[in-house]
Amino acid sequence: MTPSLPSGKLPKVLLAAFLEKYARPVPGVVLGARVGEDAAVLESPEGYLVVATDPVTFATREIGHYGVTINANDVTSRGATPRWFLMTLLLPERGVTEGGVEEIFRQVESACSRIGVGLVGGHTEVTPGLDRPLLIGTMIGEVAKEHLVTTAGARVGDDLLLTKGIAVEGTALLAREREAVLRARGYDDAFIEKAQGYLYHPGISVVEEALLAVREARVSAMHDPTEGGLSAGLYELSEAAGVGIEVERDRIPVLPETHRLCQEFQLNPLGLIASGALLIACHPEDSERLRSVMKGAGIPVSRIGRVVPRERGVVFLTGEGEQPLPLFERDEIVKLFEG
Question: Are residues 143 and 179 in the same domain?
Fold first, then answer.
């Protein structure tokens, strides 16, 4: 009997094989389906259209906000401005009311308005076999050809910056999806509310910092780490660009509530879903100025490492020496959803 695939992203080797076999080049595609690249780039008369699609898989609340934001993140990581959003909303046969569906649409409209995007289409239906609503979003943005940024653009010698810290989305999910467990274990209202509020403060959106980065610095690559956390994001950047990465452990900002919740549930923050942070590879001469501009805009940013030749691999520099950065086959949060 053929074993079932585990929860989470498809294994990279399997995904790469499928893409090579079935995602054939077609005219007008500047950047197609590749491992490590989260948005496609298409020719348009004015420049490039950047298209990204992602589902909301772990969250059960605020899925409209999640759906818009994570797809906008993928588009702006290409240096593009998000413009149009399409939503496929699949609803279970039981437990969803008209008011509940309207609330999801309200969340979508609010998230779109916040970043200047229009909801322009999609599909909504009640679907047998579901136990909760599922939202799959598609975001379309625009970028001038000379301003396009890809994950594959990282160059040896670049500084590697990380905005905000890890793991913003993972922290919000843990506090929202395991609220009853946390209360039973003695966590107070103030802690739970702050961790749940990570969804908005510091927030899972990276639109502001991505567009700021491409305006203010020579940015070679950007990537927003999602499933598999910062660790997966670094490996994806390395693979896409064909480079190595050195990361200094003590420079990686782990947010306080994240640290405490990861200890509580025995999770490694490096492998916890990390939307809200943005990896930026930029020219070292621009690094300090970009950090200053970011901080002036209220966006924390840290220099966590640098891009090195490929043969160095993806390495973790610690007080005890050098070691390979740990790689997580599945996001750490899956452990909780599997009981």
Answer: no
